Amino acid sequence: MKAKLIINLVAAHSSGNEAQFESALSDLIHDEEKKGNVQLALSLKKAYSPDKHFQSSMISPMSTMSFSVQSVTNLPKDKDSALDLVELLQPTIRLKDVALSEKVQETIQEIIEEQNNVQKLIKIGVTPTNRVLFCGPPGCGKTMTANALAKELGLPIAYVHLDGLVSSYLGQTGTNIRKIFEFVKGKRIMLFLDEFDAIAKKRDDSHELGELKRVVTTLLQNMDEMPANVFLVAATNHHHLLDPAIWRRFDISILLEEPDEMQRKKMIEKSLQDFLKEYNIDLQILVVLTDGMSGAQIQTFLQALGKFCVMNKKKGANISIEEIGKIWLKYTTLYVSQDDGDFMKALSKLQKNGVSIRTLEAITGIPRSTLSYRFNKEGKLDE
User: Fold this and answer.
1) pLDDT (tens digit, 9 = 90+) per residue, 2-41?
2) Distance of alpha carbon 127 from alpha carbon 322, whole angstroms
3) Angle between helices 18-34 and 2-15 (to 10 degrees)
4) Sign of the CA dihedral 303, 307, 309, 310?
5) What is the Cα–Cα distance from 314 to 298, expressed in whole angstroms?
6) Domain assignments of the chain as residue spans, ordered by start
């Protein structure tokens, strides 16, 4: 029995899956406790402390069993700025907490299953997916999804913000890329390349300098030489700009779009779970009003709503549709004038969802007669 538990522990460590490692270690400790080896069980517990290695400020305190403090202090740096090229992060988000479409959720789950069965797949000559490209508009959840994927795989993240990687000095950008890939080469880790289009643009773009074209070639070479123990994820807002050869280096590309109704409802329920217990808020109106927003925009709006509740309402109070509408309108039209067509569309949306023209007049200062005229005009244009 003990031999099997130790084998499971070693196999989990070799696969780099921290969740499996913790489970195998827990089984071994429990087995020793049952045998009466309390001191050994305590020693095993003390020997493994995933929170003691290092920390990073971007997402959360970072912990990992596969890195030592030595490796963190030797992060690759840009020669001229002396800034770190990589941030080491501990993923904190579970996949179940990310509002993804059913199709994307299934695809991510399949990748996780492949990684959890690496040895089985390799035995039959099949390479599991370990190079993923996330595409989609800003705020659609690419970084959050990568974070959740790393968490499920039990991997720390080497985060690279590529638009800060590009150097003005000839040849230095290519050198920086080589430093990053060399750093992760011997580690079981997720290499996350954000803003990927900054260094992976089409080489036939006449507007780009020859230096950036050489950078793409350097990137391709390093991706080709990247060992299987490194799980590569890249994210881009502009996938149409990527060099065709880049696409062939990824096992799969996943498009993340603006959240649909089901995703928005899940996101709102999770973000406002405490507020929904303390205030009476019409959840459905929030789902309707956030239509067309990205995940990041929804979070900003919900934070504004939460602040309003805390500062202006007693617990148990009703939050009226007018109050919600005022906050939503302020956020939605923050960067447009009252003469802008988008402003009137926003007002029209509120009116169609139960906010009276009288209330809209109070919110905006626009006379009811003008609002009625503009709404009728908008309606005819839509027809």
Assistant:
1) 666 676 666 666 555 555 676 677 777 766 655 655 556 6
2) 55
3) 160
4) positive
5) 24
6) 2-47, 69-255, 261-382
State the pLDDT at residue 208. 55
Beta strands 87-89 and 157-161 are antiparallel
Q: How far apart are CA 301 and CA 306, in angstroms?
A: 9
Task: Write down the pLDDT at residue 381.
Answer: 41
Residue range 56-60: mean pLDDT, rounded: 31
CATH of 69-255, one of 3.40.140.10, 3.40.50.300, 3.30.70.270, 3.30.930.30: 3.40.50.300
Q: What pLDDT score was predicted for residue 59?
A: 32
What is the pLDDT, as a whole number, of residue 328?
Answer: 83
pLDDT tens digits along 261-301 = 888 898 898 888 888 888 888 888 888 888 888 888 888 88
Six-digit token pair at 81?
A: 């700025």
Q: pTM for the whole thing? A: 0.68
Residue 78 in tokens = 């840009």
Q: How far apart are CA 35 and CA 113, in angstroms?
A: 34
CA distance between the termini of the chain: 74
Residue 121 pLDDT > 70, yes or no? yes
Query: Residue holding tokens 């205030």?
Result: 279
Alpha-carbon span 183 to 191, nearest angstrom: 10
